[in-house]
Amino acid sequence: MRQRWERLTFVHWPFDPAVVQQLLPGGLRVDTYDGAAWVALVPFFMRVATAAGHGVAWASTFCETNVRTYVHDHEGRRGIWFFSLDAARLGAVAVARTTYRLPYFWSSMRLVETPDEISYTCARRWPGPRATSRVTIRIGEPFGSGDLDERDHFLTARWILFSAAGTRRRFARAWHEPWPLHRAKAVALDDRLVAAAGLPQPRDEPLVHYSPGVDVRIGRPERYRPMPS
User: Fold this and answer.
1) Phi, psi of 47 (to 5 degrees)
2) 178 Cβ contact partners less than 8 Å away, ≥ 6 residues apart
3) How far is CA 149 from CA 15, 31, 78, in A?
4) What is the 3-state secondary structure (H, E, C) of 115-131?
5) Average pLDDT in the 199-210 region?
6) pTM to 2 decimals?
């Protein structure tokens, strides 16, 4: 599957690793940086096409927001665990839930932009629990090639996504160029999606990055064998 992830914002908070670990399925361990687990709210605009590059404007372009953390498995694979993914297209929600076994939700969503700010809104429709999110960021200067530090790479350079359905574990690989990142600041933030995932409501100032986007290819789900008991 070919996708374009654009006008994307990473909003990150540090968490106690034990708090995050208790929400993960068996076989996955929380990945930490400087002793902290990191949870992200990631709103963006999505364009989806088939492997041949075909898409339908009214069904293949939509807003999405995910809540995620970073994990590794017992074989050393490092990737993303999604607590939730909200999307504005019901068809996309149904396909992702059945094919990739990802926790997608159908939501009413909107993206509004000015030359230096972007606002994202989300109101979950189905299934529950109901939750809303409003984020406005101010976009700053782009990072130079030598400006990004180890933490920036830890939070954004991820190439595997994990999923689970009952006792079955799967993963899928993603291929894209490194994110072109900008400095950014949250100027308004009222989010309930993180808390709806079962995490404590963040109170601290978040770490924010913005990207104009990348082209992405997502592989088919691969069988994942859980850690032997």
Assistant:
1) -125, 130
2) 157
3) 20, 17, 18
4) CCEEEEEEEEEECCCCC
5) 96
6) 0.93
